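Hi there. Long-time user, first ticket. I'm pasting a complex I've been working with (about 1199 residues overall). I'd like to know whether the download I got is complete or cut off, because the file seemed smaller than I expected. Thanks.
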Amino acid sequence: MDYRPEVIERLTELWEGRDKGILKGSPELYNRYRAEAFTEFLRLGIPDRKNEAYKYTNLEKSFGYRYEKYFSPRPDDFREAERFHCEVEDLDVWNMVLLNGFFPRGDEGLAMLPGGIWVGSMRAAAKQFPSLVEKHYNRYAQNEKDGLVPLNTALATDGLFLYAPKNTVYTKPIQIVNLLHTTQDIFSQDRNLVVVEEGAQMSLLVCDHAISPQHYLTNTVTEVYVGRNARFEIIRVQNQHNDSGKITHTFIHQERDSYASSNNITLHGGLVRNATWHRLNGENAETHSYGLFLADKHQHIANFVKVDHAAPNCNSTQLFKGVLDENATGAFNGRIMVHKDAQKTNAYQSNNNIILSDTARMDTKPQLEIYADDVKCSHGATVGQLDENALFYLRSRGIDAREAKLMLMFGFAHDVIKNISIEALRERIDHLVLQRLRGELSRCASCAIQCN
Amino acid sequence: MENDQDKLLGEVTSGEYKYGFVTDIETEVIPKGLNEDVIRVISAKKEEPEWMLEFRLKAFRHWQTMKLPKWAHLNIPEIDFQDIIYYAAPKQKKRPDSLDDVDPELLKTFDKLGIPLEEQKRLTGVAVDAVMDSVSVKTTFRETLAEMGIIFCSFSEAVKEHPSLVQKYLASVVPYTDNFFATLNSAVFSDGSFCYIPKGVRCPMELSTYFRINASNTGQFERTLLIADEEAYVSYLEGCTAPMRDEHQLHAAVVEIVAERGAEVKYSTVQNWYPGDKDGKGGIFNFVTKRGICKGDDSKISWTQVETGSAITWKYPSCILRGNNSTGEFYSVAVTNNYQQADTGTKMIHIGRNTRSTIVSKGISAGFGQNSYRGLVKVLGKAEGARNFSQCDSLLLGDKCGAHTFPYIEVDNPSAIVEHEATTSRIGEDQIFYCNQRGISTEDAIGLIVNGYAREVINKLPMEFAVEAQKLLQISLEGSVG
Amino acid sequence: MQSEFLLQIKDLKASIDNKEILRGLTLEVKPGEIHAIMGPNGSGKSTLANVLTGREIATVTAGTVTFEGKNLLEMSPEDRAREGIFLSFQYPIEIPGVSMVNFMKTAINEQRKHRGLEPLSASEFLRQMREKKELVEIDSALTNRSVNEGFSGGEKKKNEIFQMAMLEPRLALLDETDSGLDIDALRIVANGVNKIRRPDTSVIVITHYQRLLDYIVPDYVHVLYDGRIVRSGGPELALKLEERGYDWIRKEADVSEETWTTDRK
Ligand SMILES: Nc1ncnc2c1ncn2[C@@H]1O[C@H](COP(=O)(O)OP(=O)(O)OP(=O)(O)O)[C@@H](O)[C@H]1O
Ligand SMILES: [Mg+2]
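Hi, the file is complete. Here it is re-exported in full:
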């Protein structure tokens, strides 16, 4: 039976009660897009496997669940959040904790960090930087085929705003810890906007955690503008329990001479789908998309990437890896698209997966779509096991078989992690991955959930 | 330098289609359009048994519920299926018993195409079934083959003479419900070849079918069925051409291959249907369903194709690897020049244990051509030890063409190893320079490089075809290189 | 009872895909001895190294191998290594993502654990790394990378000897360690082996050339031909081979049934 009509009905109810609900307190800047977006969502619906981009991902597990709340309840108690210490605590970062998508203590003002970078809530941003927000909001999250993007535009009420004005540089990473902590099962949506203006630089680390054992589904849309000669790096560490679903859509729009990189590290999660869109809109830009997941139990982890070469002389790489054990399933769907005049494009795409059990399954679809001739594009995909020869080499040096396998798996994973530019973070993530590979629950120390 | 190259490219790729002539022969045609009566007429003309007509009608009824598939990376103009003639036959008294009864015009036509039907003129290694429009004209070396128990005849004859074999295998690999074009074919198919190699027999010569479209406004819907019984071996070749016409003509064929235990079938195609002119006018729409099943253990099916013709090509010769230790291969070179479009590739379905598959696809795009590789490698849960390697390369000659790669990899077994690699590039200036430095002209250098690029595939063709294919490659790219 | 031999191979037979590669090979090595094994391509030299180190490409079908009196064939590859067998691979594999440092540290500590020793302290480990690196004149840039990743052919071979220096084996099997090395590197590597070697360390050198044996002077030279040792001698045998090739041996050794039949044709 199709679970979707009922879900759509519930969302429609929510939409109909908008005057007392989502519209309340939400800036007009965002509200003006909602009606059209909701209509668009109704037209497209919740993606099913007939949608190429979801061919190998069945959302039913997450979307079919009956949540008690269809948008996140505002927490009145932030003490929990303050007690929370992320595992990456010894990192030198500027840190902020969000609870269920809301900012602590109702403090919705924007903070200015040394160097002139602004951080805060989307609501506050609409008041403080209306024209900037107007210029960028809902400009990049354009995708005619995925109903979940307009769903977010229609119903998301807040999220993170980050603004690096022209030539501002903040060398420390900005860390956002997204906590889910409720007594109810919730579906929540957050909407984020990052603007890195010409010559500015910023790195963002987003850690997603679910710290109470309820069922969760999050549908996140993040728009990123990277101006001329600007530099932006985003790293996501996803560590949620098996009853949580996490859907992210990240749209990175790049102007000439800019640099951007995205790295999705998925350590845990019931159903995770990360979609990353890179648009190279100006010459000589460079973009990288990385992803790593380690999945077991009945987890499903999907990565969707599209790199759009719309201008000449740009470089891009995609590197995605997965390790699947037990009944886990994984999917990769990546595309390099080279537009007609995007000559001298260099684009590379690679997807490698290791299957460890009889019941795990991996589907991959690495694709090239090329309309310019002076290009170098290549891709490769593998699904297989650990290299027997490498295993023997390690064992012939006295390393036992189990340890040797671990080392190889770690090496396999490290290939992705090594691209994180912040050294302390890289080491920390290496450590988390190793713990995860050893079967230790690499969840935050402060997490009380013994989820399986 | 750039400009010189472009000019040269233009010269090299503007080669003429050499098979575009029309044979002036009286043709029997039925009126345009498609309905149950038309199907009855076709069946009656072929003097078919009732079960065959039933099969056609079943397919037709199903087809009426279907829609033209849209998923391919192709721009397919509206096709009016009522504006096509579904049966056309060169007027001959009957199926000729000896060559003397064949219309000399027809003999001349096939001579001109390089396919002499007189056995003594043929290279002794090849037996030919010559098909023009909807009927088979002549099958050579039938008697020689019959002595070994090999059946090689036109499909229509097989229906009459070997009904139990046909009934057993027809639609066993491509069911009549399979897809829009295969279903259409099942309803209206005209002629084609039928081949059965009995147990333990290695077919001593290459079997080949030559398809020729001649009549205008007609569609060609041939059907080929190849069965290799246990431990049998056969190498089969298929060639095709059509006259130059301004209209588009539809070709929707079905090929089915069955390989029993230990059998091996090599199927080679040199597809050279009329591609349309340099402005994209005319040309054949080539929508083909080709599929083989490695039914028994240790069997092998190998597809090799050189696709240079057709305005639109849509085909995915596939292997169902059901027997343990069975092997599937797909080697393809596809050229799209001018306004040609191709969406082609393969499916390798690994069901049995230790099944192996290899895919080598080389796309070459020039002019405004759009060339897509689409492939599926699927490893089912029980396919212990399955192994696939795919290599899909694209070469771009010119800046208005496109090359696309759409592989699908689905793995459900941990002991499987699946590897896919693809590259897209244009001929490197350094490669051309290297040749120039050795005294080779740019034009020759490009020829050399393109041929080298396609070599791996061409080498898989039987000798006689390989030479032809190589020439064809050159011709179809003439005037495009740079 | 302590045997006087470190390694004893008796009538060893091994096959790959049902094809017999080692066809009854006998070899005894005492502590401190250096044996050279020479023989034409494909004669089974690397297969012997694989069988001794436990790589499952070849299946042992007959014969025994004892190492310090223990049945070697029963041991896992890692236990053989911990017992002191070291193979310098003919084709060392690249292992992306696994750092040399982590790799060596794990290997050394596993070996120490096997011998009932505490793990090395970080500083002691680093000291040893430094010391051994100098011994084989290997660049630090290399040991900071992943195992063999992007190393040149010669660098890979040096890296093998560096690992040998770190692990201090009882028996070292050097499978064409000289190939791919330039003249200077050959000298460095060969002298490295001599420096690493303690009086009771045994070495089996597999090589095609005398030039390595100029540095690592063998006590015995064996010719492996078609899966068997068909000739053994002193260092002079290697010189003779260098001069005359294998043809004369081929003539003397061709006693297999297959050859016999073809001769009669
Ligand atoms: N993995 C394998 N699969 C199949 N055959 C193999 C394999 N490894 C080795 N062989 C075969 O075994 C035989 C012996 O090979 P081996 O590598 O031991 O020779 P070698 O004496 O070391 O030669 P070289 O001097 O060239 O290194 C050869 O015929 C080789 O082809
Ligand atoms: Mg060897």
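A couple of notes from our side: Confidence is low (pLDDT under 50) at residues 1-6, 8-14 of chain B. The radius of gyration of chain B is 22 Å.
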